[in-house]
UniProtKB/TrEMBL annotation:
It comes from Stieleria varia. The keyword Transport applies. This is Cbb3-type cytochrome c oxidase subunit CcoP. The lineage of its organism: Bacteria, Pseudomonadati, Planctomycetota, Planctomycetia, Pirellulales. Residues 169-212 are annotated as: Disordered. The gene is ccoP. InterPro entries: CcoP_N, CcoP_N_sf, Cyt_c-like_dom, Cyt_c-like_dom_sf, Cyt_C_IC, Cytochrome_c_Oxidase_Subunit. PROSITE patterns: CYTC (PS51007). Residues 89-168 form the Cytochrome c domain. Keywords: Electron transport, Heme, Iron, Membrane, Metal-binding, Transmembrane, Transmembrane helix, Transport. The keyword Cell inner membrane does not apply.
Length: 212
């Protein structure tokens, strides 16, 4: 017979040993409860860049830098932008770059905050597709839109420009009113070769701008 003391509980003849949880386990449980509200406020309090999704997007962007060797250095010209804005997997990379760098001015969906709405049809500093990349590279608005050429990889410039181009006409609810002028539609994507199609495989493998 065991000498372990028993509780006064008995269920259908089944007795219960009095084996309390160790003190360290109880304090660890208490500490986890005390810690949880701070964890929630930091990661789920709405601060930009702290959510699990935002952290994933940053990690995805970092991983994608390693994938750039497959496509070489992209040129920020109209043909390249028109091509990559129609490559869904690479547009997602541009979206990750955007959400890691541009949401504080343009909003998470491009609806505009301090910076202009990117989802309507009006533009202040853009007259053609290529101008989106030029604004990112050189800045605009006397510094209101900083230049990103010294912070982003050239391919990130192209991909985030392609992503911004895809936002046109989505007209996100609650966005800033149109600013600037309406411009001609984006050009159609150039014909894609078989080699180009293969390069559009999922690049994952398994920024403020006021210059619209």
């Amino acid at each position: 017979m065991s000498d372990t003391p028993k509780t006064d509980h008995a269920y259908d003849g089944i007795e219960e040993f009095d084996n309390p949880l160790p003190g360290w386990w109880k304090w660890l449980f208490v500490a986890s409860i005390v810690f949880s509200p701070f964890y929630w406020m930091f990661y789920h309090g709405g601060a930009s860049g702290r959510s699990v999704e935002d952290l994933y997007n940053v990690a995805l962007a970092e991983n994608t830098r390693k994938q750039f060797e497959e496509i070489g250095e992209l040129k920020p010209d109209e043909a390249t932008l028109a091509s990559y804005m129609n490559k869904g997997s690479w547009v997602k990379v541009g979206q990750a770059v955007f959400r890691a760098n541009c949401v504080s001015c343009h909003g998470r969906e491009g609806e505009g905050k301090v910076g202009p709405n990117l989802t309507d049809e009006a533009y202040k500093n853009v007259a053609n597709l290529e101008d989106i990349a030029k604004v990112l590279i050189n800045g605009a608005g006397n510094g209101a839109m900083p230049k990103w050429s010294n912070r982003l990889h050239p391919n990130e410039i192209v991909l985030v420009s392609a992503y911004v181009a895809t936002l046109r006409g989505t007209n996100v609810d609650g966005g800033r009113p149109p600013e600037g002028r309406t411009i001609a539609p984006w050009p159609a994507a150039p014909a894609e070769s078989d080699a180009d199609a293969e390069s559009d495989a999922d690049p994952a493998g398994d920024n403020t701008d006021d210059g619209k």
